[in-house]
Amino acid sequence: MRTAGKLIVISPLVVIPAFLAKKTSATGYVWQIDPFKCTQCGQCKTNCVLTPSASKCMHAFRMCGYCDLCGGYLRQGVKTISTGAENQLCPTGAITRKFVEEPYFEYTIDEKICDGCAKCVKGCSDFGNGSLHMQIRHDRCVNCNECSIARTCPSNAISRIPASIAYLPKDKR
Amino acid sequence: MTGQVIKFGFVHETINALMKKALPYIIFVLLLFWHIVLFSQDRFPRPEFESGHAYPTNQMPMQRAPGWEYFDVVVLTGALIMTTWLALKKRSRQGLIWMSVFSLAYFGFYRQGCICAVGSVQNVSLALFNTGYSIPLSALFFFIIPLLFALAYGRVFCAGVCPLGAIQELTGFSPVKLPKAVEIILATVPFIYLGIAILFASTNSQFIICRYDPFIGIFRLDAPYTMIIFGALLLLAGIFVNRPYCRFLCPYGVLLNVFSRFAGKHLTITPAECTNCRLCEEACPYDAIIPSDTDQQREEPTASRKRFILYFFLVPLFAIAGAFLLYNLAPSLSGANSTVRLAREIRTEKKTGIESELKTVVAFKESGKTESALFNEEEIILRRFRNASPLAGTFLGISFGIGMISLTIRTRRSEYKPHQGKCYSCGRCFKYCPIKAKA
After folding, report:
1. What are the pLDDT digits (tens) for B58-96?
2. Which residue stretches of chain A are H helix?
3. Which of B140, B148, B359 is closest, CB to CB, to A20?
4. What is the ipTM of this complex?
């Protein structure tokens, strides 16, 4: 009786892997933001289970215009156009502005300070080339079974991608 | 003929003159269009550096190497073997406590509680019913291996390997027994949790086991305050009502319960023979020790036989009732899916005329996706819920019926044994038994 029960009960443990034989991957998945779907809503910072968030801004230098008046560095509606902290979009001061040659400036994100608020991303995509974009950093991401940011992303921009790809930067296309 | 030639010549001349005059304007308009096309690609043209400045590269650190996931599977199997030996062969409660500490440290705090066997149920459901997802092999192993051990040796996974069980086991100081009725009613919750979790995971809506995992906030040492409060309250309650998550919430426990009942070699209270000394009666905080018949009054078998037959025939009725109930609940349950919620929000917006302020609606409008496409998707998802909910309801009905039947069954027992479905193989009862093992 017991062996009969054992056989009945063990059958799903055989059947399920058989069904999944073709749908099993050796490599895992990681979560990543599709920067072309992202609407820069700011939830990447608040909804990650980690504090600070595992998602940070990344700069696609090849798409950048290297402008003096950067839409992602400086906020709109300033009284005097200067690079003072009151005029910068980034609340943590994570964007460094470096002069390259006339009239070009290079903007780099200091990842240790960036908290993923996406304010610079919004400014850049509204008023610039859109070279600043959000990406989930895999040295910080704990790879939850269901990403809390993905669950609440308004544009469904976050999905599982194979771990071998891991990143979807804007300038890889 | 001449007139025609003259006419043609006149037309030809005017066209020539017009062309000469209009040509610059034509070229200007073409240039404008050309410039606009260029403009739409980049608002600001990309620089050509004269100084030879090179573009900096971005660091893109990868996840931990995939081999480590298989290492986790090896650690899982090793821990299961060790726990089995400690519980069944060595019979050491102290050893099982150390095993719990190890599992809490490794699977809990080091791996931060993810991936766990409890949540793997959802990955299996997602992979079985969705084409876009292939389950990672390590997740499949995490699902199957504890069940295989349960089939052979009982719930050794719960004893010393599951990090959630470990943290509850290590904080259960003063056990208090619950009234039987309360325990039976609360024991139905894991079945409902399992049914709903598989329903939501297979329709690609949500992973509710992960979302409402009470202890993962403690494992990560980082969580929204609601999760911390839930986990802390559960642990506080667990000081008295031991293993609250295991007994009254764990969905994987339903599967372990079923598999463990067929175990050939299960943990025993006594190392040799039971002499019915009754010293272990109050040993189990989880009320998993089934006493023997020697002192108890047994009721007339005819009444319980009648009840058994009644409940046996009621099982299909329960199944149908469950299927019917969940089928009608399908629209509400489908609200767990974000696409369905968005479609309903858009529909409400159109009906009331009040613009929605939700970020999802704003993002949807910006995306350029048509409303009819969205409503089509919603229709498909609702149909999936309509198909799947009756199955969940049938499962719940049958489980309920079988539970009722088991309340009417009473086997003849000549010794004290643990309930093979409920016993967590934790070994608390070992020290109560005075029998020494045969030398």
Report:
1. 888 888 877 888 999 999 999 999 999 999 999 999 999
2. 2-19, 43-47, 119-127, 148-152
3. B140
4. 0.89
